[in-house]
Amino acid sequence: MKKRKLTDNIIQYAEERKISKKTLEDLRVESGPAQFGNQTYESIVFGYYNLEGERVNYKARAIKEKLFKQKKDGEQRFYNLDNVLKSNNLANNTIYIVEGEFDALALYEAGFSLDTILSVPNGAVSSPNDEPHQMRKYKYVLDALDQGLDKANCIVLLLDSDDSGLALRQDLASIFGYGKCKYYDFPKDIKDANQALITWGKEDFRWQINEGLVDFPIEGVYGLDDIPDPPKVKLYNPHMKGWDEKFMLGVGMVSVFTGYPGHGKTSFAIQLWTNIAKEYNGIIGMFSGETRVKPYVRRNIRTFYHKKLEWKMSDEEKKEADDFIREHFIFLNHPNNSPDFEWMCDKIRDMKARFGINAFVLDPWNKLEMPDFLQGSETQWIGKSLDYLTSLAKLLDIHIMILAHPSKPDAKMGNSPPSAYSIAGSAHWNNKPDHIFSLWRDKFENDDGSRNTEALFTICKTRYEELGYPRILNVYMNLDNGCFEALHKNYQEA
């Protein structure tokens, strides 16, 4: 294609788009006849230059028809890249990227500096790409970065307002880095920068762009106003008389309950979930690996349901309690008495799907065998398992409670309540769960030989304030009704 100076027709064509002759000259725009098929049209010609001033590509646009043509085998690069890269102030410059050469001219016409304006060499894309860095289409972007464009202080994306322009915006931001990018959203009636110049005029155009820039969102990084208010935590109140709301259990969470053998944690847990099942009409799934459902677990639930010792119940009362159990409790029992983690998780999902359970109680943890996919150290197994159970609780919208034995206490340890760090296997017991508590009795008999019924219920950890705060609560077993009750003593801060 033969080059020539600007013609009157080209100058008039540009003026219709509010582009002056000076802008055309400053950006080295030319006139030229361009062949499109069998026809030759007078065209406006945009030159693409390297840093040595050599024209390595061009784009011709016919002024009578919407026809475009590039140099065969021409180098793909940003329009006006040479002026941007040769700037002595590149490291402090904000670079504006548009979707067409006329949009670049519009920016310059509106007063933006020549060494801050770029246009992509080809059209937009139909949809954003997962890995735009790997696409040959964007090689020109990577080349520009290698040549020095990476030094630019900020990248502003002023792309067309249609779907393809928005897709291109997403791709370019991904390549440049979201933290460096800003963008401007043109109003619905404004397609691009050139139309904005025509509609608004130079001063308003420049003001609109400068005042309307938005930081490109960075996935996972938020300001306060960008973070939605979290949904209200759904809570279960175990309704321990005298505790008010000092102790709550959250849906979608995992709790760990520890205590030395014989101190009553299994019975205490059963009482909590019996109360919750009654109050919320809930359904509780349970794995009882050390305690037989019949007669022990059934006897406990009967007692906590009626708040009455089983031997004092009439047959009708037992039947009523058993009907309650049938309606509100589902039990797991491994056929070979060798449950592993995968089996248990599968059954939890099945119980949710079939029965709509609201909670699952695993009693105790040490009855589970390590699955093949979690092979490794015990610490690794516990950490991965707790992470998985946390995800499962959220997914199924249930509470999962794990009863876990402390390490075998020595004489000194047994004189104080166990903590999460006392649980055998891993410090993950303290780090991973949302809620940790323990039950402890300092002795089994009083000095007079009578049964000691007093214990300390310690809330060791709560991840959210809605669950209550760490504290020690005084509790005792009421021998008249077989239920745990709060002692009327001041609680202690843990």
Protein model, in words:
- The structure is a single chain.
- With 494 residues, this protein is α/β, with parallel strands linked by helices.
- It folds into 3 domains: 75 residues; 140 residues, Dna Topoisomerase Vi A Subunit, Chain: A, domain 2 (3-Layer(aba) Sandwich); 259 residues, P-loop containing nucleotide triphosphate hydrolases (Rossmann fold, 3-Layer(aba) Sandwich).
- It is built from 14 helices and 21 strands.
- Strand 5, helix 4 and strand 6 form a beta-alpha-beta unit.
- Helix 7 packs across helix 8 and helix 12 runs parallel beside helix 13.
- The mean pLDDT is 88.
Summarize the model shown.
With 494 residues, the chain is an alpha/beta fold. The protein has 14 helices and 21 strands.
Query: Which residues form runs of ≥5 with pLDDT under 50?
Result: none
CATH topology of the largest domain: Rossmann fold
What characteristic shape results from the CA principal axes? rod-shaped
Major sheet: size, sense and barrel closure?
Answer: 10 strands, mixed
CATH superfamily of the largest domain: P-loop containing nucleotide triphosphate hydrolases
Portion in strands = 15-25%
| Portion in helices | 25-40%
Distance between the termini: 85 Å
Rounded mean pLDDT is: 88
Total helices: the number is 14
User: What is the CA-based Rg, rounded?
Assistant: 36 Å
**Given this structure, which CATH class of the largest domain is correct?**
Alpha Beta
CATH architecture of the largest domain: 3-Layer(aba) Sandwich
Derived structural class = alpha/beta
